[in-house]
Amino acid sequence: MTSQERSLLRGIFQNRCPSCWDGAVFSGPYRMNETCPHCRYRFAREDGYFLGAMVISYFVGGFSAVPTLIFLIFGAGWEPLLATGVSCLQIALLNLPLFHFARLAWLHMDREVSRLAFERDQRGVTSNDKK
Ligand SMILES: [Zn+2]
Prior knowledge:
Helix content is 62%, strand content 0%.
């Protein structure tokens, strides 16, 4: 994959390794590879690495239910308890797509931040060498 074809969203939605963009991160609905099958990039770098992905999942899942809740209560006139139940069902149905999205988003964001930090450090070393 050329660098022009790479984009953060494409990598996330196509289940691509953030390092080589060829290997798959997930090999099944709830099965994630430990390393990339193509380049051997280790996905979970340490214990608790995916805690940030959990926060993304809670944030997206929670906020996706709010418009449904507001529409059902104020637009359709449903009872708040029933509307809340439907919103909770919506979050439960989004569990699997959100699990994938959150972990892939976390992997790609972490890889991108690491790459930018590495480039910044390289520029810093270069500018220090010139002094
Ligand atoms: Zn890879």
